Amino acid sequence: MTEEVQRHSVHTLVFRSLKRSHDMFLSNQGILAPIDEKAEKVKKLVKSRDCYGLVFDRVKRANAMKQMQHIENREPNSQQPLAIMGADAPAVPSPAMSEAALVPAAPPVAQQQSATSAGATVQTLIPRRAPAMPKPKWHPPWKLYRVISGHLGWVRCAAVEPGNEWFATGSADRVIKIWDLASGQLKVSLTGHISSVRGLAVSARHPYLFSCGEDRQVKCWDLEYNKVIRHYHGHLSAVYTLALHPNIDVLATAGRDATCRIWDMRTKANVHTLTGHTNTVASVICQSAEPQIVTGSHDCTIRLWDLAAGKSRATLTNHKKSVRALVFHPTVYMFASASPDNIKQWKCPDGKFVQNLPGHNAIINCLAVNPEGVLVSGADNGTLHCWDWRTGYNFQRLQAPVQPGSMDSESGIFSMTFDMSGSRLITTEADKTIKIYKEDDTATEETHPIHWRPEILKRRKY
User: pTM (2 decimals)?
Assistant: First the structure.
């Protein structure tokens, strides 16, 4: 059964169409229904909060900070601002003016004009705060207290276990050795690489040790069984460095093929291949905040990578020579890079340059920093320089002694790391030894004073 279509006269259809047309173009004639102002206001507020809520919060914070800075500038040392009266004002010296006549005023930073009730113009001169250079924090000097020998080749890398009970070293003799941190005794030797071991990392979340080497292999060792459980295949040449992400199961490796590869730790899948460097990538570091990965290369550049997008976020070209070492500060949102021309400090997330740390004139292979703000750099000629992170003050210079029977030319330092407490510095060297440094307990500020001679007045705010 088909339902019959109801028939209408032409007159009815014309008027129905006319009514629809009239309703459609009603707003063009200015004949609108009355607007509910309250409902319209709520609608606009909801829409603006939805679209621009983040901007509103940032503007509020920025205005609050400006207001605080304004208050600080208005009252630098509980001084009253100096007032200079206009020509129409009565010439009555104020107490502030009499003091200003005796003490030379600082140059003005702001002039504010306001009309008084009598019509006089007052210009308020706010004294500028004198630029101050922060004095370095005193750090006790470091001294060598233990030398561990056992490798048969250059010791290229070291990593400390998160529990601070042992540390691992990798060498050109193709062996990974695990040492007791307290006693320096050898616990285990792991064999499996067929060339120099160049990078090590111990996972804080799993019982895994990761290693990479010049044999293009990246291995995952299960420390409960002391054997390899995974290989990560993909690098086309020697793998020089690796790093673990602190929060997610991701491993970053880099090397002579000028790429940094991101691996899913569990599935062995190559998540990203970060390309852009034009020469060997010598150092890679990871952090949980953005940008998550930073790489330093022999092409003299540093790249900051967004791990989620797999793309380069910024390229820093300040260095003039190859960048062989990078390190994140454990508590400050900054990182440092080392090159034969300078050690440089940068602010995350955009890589804003902070300051140079000049003076270590050698090929710097490694950097380490502890929570106390001690930055240490190690070079190919066996020199160690200790710096105050905040001011860049070089408070100590050391020359690592070579192992008896070795040549002086074998005093190069290849890698270094602090233990989890920051009180022990472990260095791996070309004389086939591992050296451990600690702070000198007998030193005081009187026996080792700070000789601070800043060459350039640096205006910086932390």
Answer: 0.71
